[in-house]
Amino acid sequence: MLLRPHxxxxxxxxxxxxxxxxxxxxxxxxxxxxxxxxxTVTLTGGCDCICEACPNNAGVICxxxxxxxxxxxxxxxxxxxxxxxxxxxxxxxxxxxxxxxKSGRLKDFCRKCQWLYICEKKV
Length: 123
What we know:
Blueprint: E1 2-3, H1 7-13, H2 21-37, E2 40-43, H3 65-79, E3 86-88, H4 89-101, H5 106-109, H6 116-122
Parallel strand pairs: 1-2
Antiparallel strand pairs: 2-3
């Protein structure tokens, strides 16, 4: 299963604001599957399993790729991982939670994300 590195953060805080109902439904299905099955994920720099239903999906890349790529790079840098790495979902989630969220660094990573205000409320 392909997953963009920054989605380890988005999934933790997802509430469904600002997206169409199809995307919200799809995102909730992906989150449920990740939590239930704990699959091996392969880190990608392009569209992943979440992007399939996203309104910003421009084919093989995100229409906002310049922004999300920067977040992906920051996440990979602190976690010590790379595009193409494979790891259990639970390991990626826990590492992102410990090294970014619990350490109080979320704003540093997601500073240009339009949804940051939602995530900060939940930290």
